Amino acid sequence: MRIGIVCYPTHGGSGVVATELGSALAEKGHHVHIISYAIPFRFEAFRRNLTYHEVEVTAYPLFRYPPYDLALAGTIMDVHAQYGLDLLHVHYAIPHAVSACLARQMLNSEGRNLRIVTTLHGTDITVIGQQRVFQPITRYGIQQSDCVTAVSAELKQRVLETIDCGATQIEVIPNFIDTSRFTPGCCPEKRDNLAAPGERVVMHVSNFREVKRTPDVIRVFAAAGVEQSRLIMVGDGPEVGACRELARKLGVASRVNFVGTYDAIWELLPQADAFLLPSDYESFGLAALEAMSCGVPVVCSNTGGLPEVVQDQRCGFLHAPGDIPAMAASLRRLLTDDHLRAEMGDAGRTIAQKRFRHDALLPVWESCYERVLALPPRA
Question: What is the pLDDT of residue 107?
Answer without folding.
Answer: 86
